[in-house]
Design brief:
mainly alpha, Endonuclease III, domain 1, globular, two-stranded parallel ribbon
């Protein structure tokens, strides 16, 4: 079988490659998936993405399948239970931020009709097509991620610094940061609405 040319950051790990090949950079417009990625990205802050990816199913189970309506109503008892769950990243501030972010997410939905409409408005509703030759040259933040991060913080979101938000934009296809030599670069580009 012919070896696919992938972005350098994912090579050599089956889970990473599957995530890269099937999800990373694919434009996401549904609020449920956007919220899932937002939560996973906030837990990733300061850690490697593979760490979060390996615990993704545990997160899904622990956080009611990333149901933001349920998460917004978590009690102190539920928060304490999560902090005892060794299957997830047990960072007290991030667990509490997840509840805060679920509440803020619902508020944004009320104001904009959907969170998707709100977040995609920062890129005029369509993915930015970058031409990255080597993932190491990719930006960790941009003017747009700075602006979006600032706006989310104003709306009460936590752990949404510009780097976290740019990673979220990459994951949900708001930007196509696949290396131009990667087989997914043109495939993802063709998925544009």
């Amino acid at each position: 079988m012919e070896k696919l040319n992938r972005c350098g950051w994912c090579e050599g790990d089956e889970l990473y490659e599957a995530y890269h090949d099937n999800e990373w950079g694919v434009p996401v417009y549904d609020d449920d998936t956007i919220f899932e990625f937002l939560i996973l990205e906030t837990f990733q802050a300061g850690l490697s993405w593979i760490t979060v990816l390996r615990k993704r199913e545990n997160f899904r189970e622990a956080f009611d399948n990333f149901d933001y309506k349920k998460i917004a109503n978590y009690s102190e008892e539920k928060i304490q239970e999560l902090l005892q769950d060794s299957g997830i990243i047990r960072n007290k501030l991030k667990v509490r931020a997840t509840v805060t972010n679920a509440r803020a997410f619902i508020e944004v939905q009320k104001q904009h009709g959907s969170f998707s409409k709100y977040i995609w408005s920062f890129v005029d509703g369509k993915p930015i097509q970058n031409k990255i030759e080597n993932y190491k040259e990719a930006s960790a933040t941009t003017e747009i991620s700075n602006k979006l991060s600032k706006d989310l913080k104003k709306k009460g979101f936590k752990f949404v610094g510009s780097t976290v938000i740019y990673a979220h934009m990459q994951a949900t296809g708001m930007v196509n940061d696949h290396e131009i030599s990667c087989f997914r670069h043109s495939e993802v580009k063709d998925l544009e609405k």
